[in-house]
Amino acid sequence: MRLNRFLAAASVGSRRHCDELIAAGRVTINGQVCTNFSTRPTGRDHVKVDGKLVQVDPVLHIALHKPAGFVSTKADPHARNTIFDLLPPTFPRLFNVGRLDAQSEGLLILTNEGGLAQQLTHPRYEIDKEYEVTLDRQWDSALTPKLLHGIWLDGQRARIVRLHLLTATRLRVVLRQGINRQIRRMFHEIGYEVKRLVRTRIGNLRLGDLPRGYWRALTKREVESLRRP
To answer: Which of 49, 79, 140, 190 is least crowded, fewest Cβ atoms below 10 Å from its Cβ?
Structure first.
């Protein structure tokens, strides 16, 4: 990878900030100042910023079963528990792919590979996200077309792609959008309150029997499956 990406991946700062460091002559490779933005360091090179050695963390992809009561952020101003409290402190810096609100549960993907994170969250790729939704009362199937056709939220049409009845009050729904609190807000608009919301699948990756509050590393096959558009 190019030098600015290498520095950004080593958590030195944004790519723009890294460009500024390179241009200012504050980056050395094997003891020599490097101002060539096209340079591609290898694993054998010693890259330093202001004399301090920097290293790129190994690529890591994990699945986490988020419990209710945890927020999907690195730090919370209200001092609530965050999903990163569930991970070992020795982990490299990870980014969660999408979010679940504090009271929602289920599958989260965390990675330090920016390209995969962008693919999984960019609307262009239309990645399926499947949820089990428990409602406050019996579902009226006559309302299903309204959710499939879409409800206006934040100036855009929020749609559920598929809806399947599991029990009188429990549904399986699939989204391909990422509007804030989309499922809860859509059901609220038609007179229902969501009592429990669990994400069970992202793309081809399923939550499976991963216990609540636990994580596991993704296999190479699972990661490659997620990369497919």
So the answer is: 79
At 33, which CATH number? 3.10.290.10
Collapsing DSSP to helix, strand or coil, 15 comes out as helix
pLDDT tens track for 10-52? 778 888 899 999 999 999 999 999 999 999 998 789 999 999 9
Maximum CA pair distance of the chain? 70
**Same domain, residue pair 32 and 92:** no
Return the pLDDT at 190: 97
| Residues 149 and 109 placed together within one structural domain of the fold | yes
Residue 200 has φ and ψ, to the nearest 5°, of -110, -15
Hey, which of 88-97, 115-124, 194-203 has the most confident mean pLDDT? 194-203
**Cα dihedral value 64, 68, 74, 80, nearest 10:** -150
Same domain, 139 and 199: yes
Alpha helices (runs of H) in the chain, residue ranges in sequence order: 3-9, 15-23, 114-121, 144-149, 182-189, 220-227
Closest CA to 115 of 192, 56, 59, 43: 59
DSSP 143: G
Q: Which residues are catalytic?
A: 101
DSSP 142: G
Residues forming beta bridges with residue 65, ordered by sequence position: 107
For position 229, what pLDDT does the model report? 58
* Tokens found for residue 40: 């591609």
Domain boundary among 39, 54, 69: 54
3-state secondary structure of 205: strand
Does this model's pTM top 0.85? no
